[in-house]
Design goal:
Layout: H1 15-23, E1 41-42, H2 55-67, H3 74-77, H4 83-91, E2 102-104, H5 108-122, E3 128-132, H6 137-150, E4 153-157, H7 162-165, E5 170-176, H8 188-197, E6 201-205, E7 224-227, E8 242-245, H9 289-303, H10 307-328, E9 335-336, E10 348-352, H11 356-365, E11 368-369, E12 371-373, E13 377-381, H12 389-405
Parallel strand pairs: 1-11, 3-4, 3-5, 5-6, 6-7
Antiparallel strand pairs: 2-8, 7-8, 9-10, 10-13, 12-13
Length: 420
């Protein structure tokens, strides 16, 4: 990253530097496609993406015309019934998948349950499922539930120990590509290859990857993957998740929640279950059409962007943020938890501080929105389609004031809210 320099001094970053960078940003025009409230710097797209400008009109059309006007005809005329596949095929290129390998459906947790169960069936006689111990807990909880039901063992290993934990008794590894707290990137190619060498299957969680950085599942021979659409894909709160099954497994992989949407002929109403021969068998029940349809609005924007440019801007924004925090808040006790090497870091930055919760509350009240992750991490996400370089400057300006003034010490910031 290039900085302004003054003769004989360390690199200097100014607000004008940031404005200048925004002027030449090839993704700058995407910001106008989002509804960002005035006076808000939104650095929480790694938790909930911003709303697309087209979303309200789209929802109104689905609710008022498709549902209100056309009623049940819309299952056919508006393509409701095929939405999981239609959106899956739209999303597939963003994660290096092919048409027919992705469906948008259910939640990440439910989809992970399906894939872990299918993987265990495909590797009978093997007892271990390996996960990263500090991973987002839902993955571990789902694996623990499956292990208890099937007499398997969950092995939790941290980043540098995952490869060594894989052995001939491993049925599957289930690894998050970008860690939800630190933002560190796990090596998809190496860990997938290690799993395959041991005869195990590789499942990857792309919740903090999809829409933030390029990923190529098929190039790395990944077996299964899951991810959400409400973060960098801007699908809306609680929007349906997605799952990926490599085509080479579709003939043999079987998911356990065998609902009617996964049947080979759902409208034959056969009393016996026959799975669809393709990715449709990983569907289960009737889909939440309004939120599912809304997911497509965010996907359309992401598909219009160049992922190489998205990644380049992500790196620039996170590098800028780290540099400014360390330049302006060095005396305030922040510790960088995210990898310093941008090649090892996703599109977020985490700083630890013993009063991280209070500091984040004070920032949010001043219009800079990030979030907090226990026990002490202030977390900031950088969605390249709508976060600007000048937003980064303004965010650190607010952080500096919160720290220099001691504003975070206000007792009301210590009261924990339900969602942090």
């Amino acid at each position: 990253m290039q900085h302004d320099k003054q003769a004989g001094q360390n690199p200097v970053i100014s607000r004008q530097t940031c404005i200048d960078r925004d002027q030449v940003d090839p993704l700058a025009h995407f910001r106008d496609a989002f509804l960002i409230p005035d006076g808000v710097v939104y650095l929480d797209g790694n938790s909930l993406g911003a709303m697309a400008d087209a979303a309200p009109v789209h929802v109104a059309r689905v609710v008022e015309r498709e549902w209100g006007g056309d009623l049940i005809k819309s299952w056919n005329s508006a393509g409701w019934f095929d939405l999981p596949l239609t959106l899956g095929n739209k999303l597939a290129p963003l994660i290096g998948a092919a048409a027919g390998e992705v469906v948008v459906t259910d939640s990440t947790s439910v989809n992970l349950f399906k894939l872990l169960w299918a993987a265990a069936d495909m590797r009978p006689g093997r007892s271990k499922i390996i996960l990263e111990g500090s991973n987002f807990p839902t993955d571990n909880y789902v694996a623990q539930g499956i292990a208890a039901a099937r007499g398997l063992e969950v092995v939790l290993a941290e980043r540098d120990a995952i490869a060594d934990a894989i052995d001939e008794d491993t049925a599957a590894i289930c690894i998050t590509h970008v860690h939800y707290k630190t933002g560190h990137i796990n090596d998809m190619a190496a860990l997938t290859a290690k799993a395959h060498a041991a005869g195990a299957l590789a499942i990857w969680d792309l919740c903090h990857t999809a829409g933030a950085m390029p990923v190529d599942l098929n190039a790395h021979r990944v077996d299964f993957a899951v991810g959400c659409t409400y973060k960098y894909l801007n699908g809306g709160p609680g929007s349906p998740a997605f799952l990926f099954v490599a085509k080479r497994h579709l003939a043999v992989a079987r998911q356990p929640i065998t609902g009617w949407w996964g049947h080979n002929a759902p409208f034959a109403f056969d009393p016996a279950y026959t799975p669809a021969p393709d990715i449709r068998q990983f569907l289960t029940g009737t889909q939440p059409i309004v939120s599912l349809s809304l997911t497509g609005v965010g996907l359309d924007l992401m598909c219009a962007a160049d992922m190489a440019q998205v990644r380049a801007k992500s790196v620039a924004l996170t590098e800028l943020f780290i540099a400014l925090v360390e330049q302006r808040c060095a005396k305030h006790g922040f510790t960088l938890i995210s990898p310093r090497d941008a090649g090892d870091r996703g599109s977020q930055v985490a700083f630890a501080h013993r009063h991280g919760y209070e500091i984040m509350r004070a920032m949010i009240e001043r219009g800079v929105v990030g979030d907090f992750r226990a026990p002490d991490i202030a977390r900031f996400g950088f969605a390249p389609l709508y976060v600007r370089h000048v937003d980064v400057w303004d965010a650190v300006d607010v952080l500096t004031d919160v720290m220099d003034s001691g504003a975070w010490r206000d007792p009301r910031y210590a009261k924990r809210e339900a969602v942090t």
